[in-house]
Amino acid sequence: MVLIRTCDLEPFQLTDGVPIMPTTTTMPTETAAQTLTDSGLRSTPQREVIYSILLNKRDHPTADEVYARVKTELPSISLATVYNCLETLVGCNLVRAVNFDREPTRYCPNLRPHAHFHDENLGSTYDIDLPPDLLEQIKAILPPGYNASSIEISFRGHTAPEAAQN
Amino acid sequence: MVLIRTCDLEPFQLTDGVPIMPTTTTMPTETAAQTLTDSGLRSTPQREVIYSILLNKRDHPTADEVYARVKTELPSISLATVYNCLETLVGCNLVRAVNFDREPTRYCPNLRPHAHFHDENLGSTYDIDLPPDLLEQIKAILPPGYNASSIEISFRGHTAPEAAQN
DNA sequence: AATTTATTTGGAATGGTTCTAATTCGCACT
DNA sequence: AGTGCGAATTAGAACCATTCCAAATAAATT
User: Which of A5, A137, A142 lies closest to B117 in CB terms?
Assistant: First the structure.
């Protein structure tokens, strides 16, 4: 099975400058708490809050940015815990880690297959929906004997000002 | 124009365990020296040797690995110079930097569009030829207003033992 | 040959991330 | 309700790839 090392967002609208929040998301069939305990892990306030922060504002924050946001809710949390929790959430597939070159890792809640677009002017990252058939075609370029467990597709460039999403 | 942030290798053969070295490569129309001076840079021994090392063994070495290899030829070279030279070569498009998550950057001589496959068992990286039409299809998933200057496609997984290339 | 400018160099600094050892927490079992 | 025990959190040190810096060297230009 080929995992998409990529994160998720409902298809955003580009018709005007207004950011469209996902209305229906491919919600996990269980709560985060359930997924955690199913993986033999505990559902802690830190993990829950960090996950909710990721769900809440899907702008692919870095660990530092997550840290800043969590502190408003859990002022005594440590950066190490933020890293630990993010790693845990990635580990049980609630969240995906996203990398652009050697920039700090970004995080987003795990949903469906998509590519990433990184705007070099704004520093923003957007999710690009990936059609299943295209994914199949991409997998098909691998020679026999190559077993891929994950794929990552990322674009770099800039977005037209009128296409601003967030 | 969309650049492929990816490096190159002639299509390797997988029929047996024998690594096939590229026979014909899409050689640059100019020498490295020429490309450098065309970019207003000097052709130095360090730059030339590093470039030749990259051409010589196309196994996507890290800066450290390049450093180790250069030292046999230029024993007094410094690691800082290796980084400088690699950056210079990347800057004038003779070489591509390749990243897998946050692992150390790898380098390969610049040729045609291709994806990367990273074998998690061996730590080896292989180039996967990217058909032009597929590339077009991938670019086509971008919504209007998204102007990509580069694409990167990378696989992670393992290769069957009998498909060993190098 | 002298001057300017680019390049190299070693070592210090940076910055994101991970490690460590100690504390705290949550759950299971009395 | 209290206790014990493994899991989770925490602060700070450590790590490591990479970059920065300031001095030394080399190459091109005058």
Answer: A142
B152 contacts A152? CB cut-off 8 A: yes
**B17/A135: higher pLDDT:** A135
Assess contact for A13 and A20: CB atoms under 8 A. Answer: yes
Q: Which residue in A has a C-alpha nearest to residue B125's C-alpha?
A: A146
Higher pLDDT pick, A27 / A64: A64
Report residue B46's pLDDT band, with 50, 70 and 90 as the boundaries: very high
Q: Is the CB of A89 under 7 A from strand D?
A: no
The architecture (CATH level 2) of A3-10+31-116+132-152 comes to Orthogonal Bundle (1.10)
Q: What is the signed CA dihedral for B41, B47, B48, B54, rounded to 10 degrees? A: -130
Cross-chain Cβ contact B146/A126 below 8 Å: yes
**ipTM of the predicted structure?**
0.85
Residues facing residue B150 across a β-bridge: A156, B3
Distance A68 CA to C14 C1' (A): 21
For the domain made up of B3-13+27-163, the CATH class stated in words is mainly alpha
Does pLDDT of A41 surpass 90?
Answer: yes
